[in-house]
Design goal:
Length: 285
């Protein structure tokens, strides 16, 4: 089995629609795909409607968190999307994205960059607007060569000249909300230092004690030495280890199935979940 547990669609900051995403996943030879758009489940219905035979969908979301000033993401799998407390928190994070993006645009204008809200909104489409959409606008304007080049202190990185904070959930609260909604929680790319500061291993240990299920080890932003270190940490803390592409379509260079999750780990995730269950494809449009 080939299992990719971290992907994004146009419901957040990916460039493939949910339907396009599952078709590409099937063509890439994947058996299981998780849709984990940022702070939203809006892509789930379209994904399920288009799910091709032979591909199983794991519903999920990537939750925006912050601990001691450090941004971090938590992958939540197979939770009840209608559970009121988690739904309210996701909406709070999502609703803060528009004023945040407009604040970044104002800062960029002050730096002499002629980006507009209309441009960023066009790029975001129906997705939850975020920094990658602002970064794409900078690429369109020729300010930077690629989206990743916009995530630097000069522009949009945490603390950068055009950075604006947004509402982000305390990870211990996020963990509580996910568990109460019957979900499984995995810390996304915990050592992706090229994105900015990362939480210390002591914080991961505290999250493990509070009920964290796993950490994403095999990821494009982790080099081999980092993956080995994280695998050892997971063993010490009794955490599951996952692998995934963090696919965003053409917005990033990663490809579907670039890293995958062990079938036994996937089986354990499905056994722990009570809020929702994987859905096997029966042939979508």
């Amino acid at each position: 089995m080939r299992i990719d547990l971290h992907t994004h669609s146009t419901a957040s900051d990916g460039t493939d629609t949910p339907a396009e995403l599952v078709r590409k996943a099937a063509s890439a030879g994947l058996d299981v795909l998780a849709l984990t758009d940022h702070d939203t489940t809006r892509g789930h219905a379209e994904t399920l409607a288009a799910l091709p035979p032979g591909l199983t969908l794991v519903t999920g979301a990537e939750l925006s968190c912050r601990l001691d000033g450090i941004s971090m993401h938590m992958l939540a799998y197979l939770f009840d999307p209608e559970e009121p407390a988690l739904l309210a928190e996701r909406e709070l994070v999502r609703d803060d994205r528009v004023p945040r993006a407009k604040g970044m645009i104002t800062k960029l204008n002050e730096l002499g960059v002629p980006v507009t809200w209309e441009q960023v909104a066009r790029i975001a489409g129906d997705g939850s607007v975020g920094r990658p959409h602002v970064a794409s606008a900078l690429v369109e304007l020729g300010v930077v060569a690629s989206v990743s080049d916009a995530f630097t202190p000069e522009w949009l990185a945490d603390g950068g000249r055009a950075y604006m904070p947004k509402h982000e959930t305390d990870p211990f609260e996020a963990l509580r909300l996910v568990k109460n909604a019957g979900g499984v929680a995995v810390l996304a790319h915990p050592a992706a230092s090229k994105r900015g500061r990362t939480v210390p291993e002591s914080a991961i240990a505290e999250l493990a004690e509070a009920g964290l299920d796993g950490i994403e080890v095999d990821h494009m932003d982790h080099d081999p030495a980092t993956r080995a270190r994280l695998r050892g940490l997971a063993g010490e803390l009794g955490l599951l280890t996952t692998g995934s592409s963090d696919y965003h379509g053409s917005r990033k260079s990663c490809v579907l199935g670039e890293f995958t999750t062990d079938p036994e780990v996937y089986g354990e995730i499905t056994r722990r979940a009570t809020g929702a269950f994987p859905v096997p494809g029966t042939g979508g449009a």
